[in-house]
Amino acid sequence: MSEVYRRAVPEDAKRLVDITYRAYGLIRELGLRWPAAHADLPLVLKNIEENECYLLEAGGEPVATVTLSTSGEAKAITDLPFVKWFAADPDRSNKGYGGRLLDWVEKEIVFGRHGHSEVTLATAQKHPWLVQMYERRGYERILEIDAKNGDGIMYLLRKNIAEYRYADPVRGRA
Predict the structure, then answer these.
(1) Cα(155)–Cα(152) distance, integer angstroms
(2) In this structure, what DSSP letter does residue 37 have?
(3) How far apart are CA 65 and CA 77, in angstroms?
(4) What's domain 3-160's architecture?
């Protein structure tokens, strides 16, 4: 099945609403107030228009999405590129789509196109597996934040993508 990595356009919004909303189910259960957890069509369209929203298509269908923030809401805590709204279709889990898309955005967009050697993202301490997942992907915790909004401790994580060795998708090794 062929895979296509590309920037999202408004016509992708309905499918991205579906993927994002379903993928963020646990976030809603945890009571986290992340905008992506409450994705609807106007919010997803705004994200596509105001940021760099990317997707991975498999067999002609979007299966994963991630956004590189350009709208500035992360500027209060970091000057580095900030990744958000990362979601993979839960019906196609364990196929590596999300990881491959995130690798592509880090390597081709953040490093290749924008020339940044580091990238950041944030996640919640109370999530049962996200912190560990990002740490396995080479991210390290650099800041703890409690915005006193009910989300609890949030971690800002950073990854040096200039030094990180991406696996060769053909040979499966760095």
Answers:
(1) 10
(2) G
(3) 24
(4) 3-Layer(aba) Sandwich (3.40)
How many Cβ atoms are within 10 Å of 96's Cβ, its own excluded? 14
Buried b (16+ CB within 10 A) or exposed e, 69-87: beeeebeebbebbbbbbbb
Helix (H) or strand (E) holding 86: strand 82-88
User: In the chain, where are the structural domains located?
Assistant: 3-160
Whole-angstrom distance, CA of residue 166 vs CA of residue 164 = 6
| Residues 135-159: tens digit of each pLDDT | 999 999 999 989 888 888 999 999 9
138: Cβ contacts below 8 Å, ≥ 6 apart: 159, 160, 164
Q: What is the pTM of this model?
A: 0.89
Could you report the per-residue pLDDT of 90-137, keeping only the tens digit for each?
A: 999 889 999 999 999 999 999 999 999 999 999 999 999 999 999 999
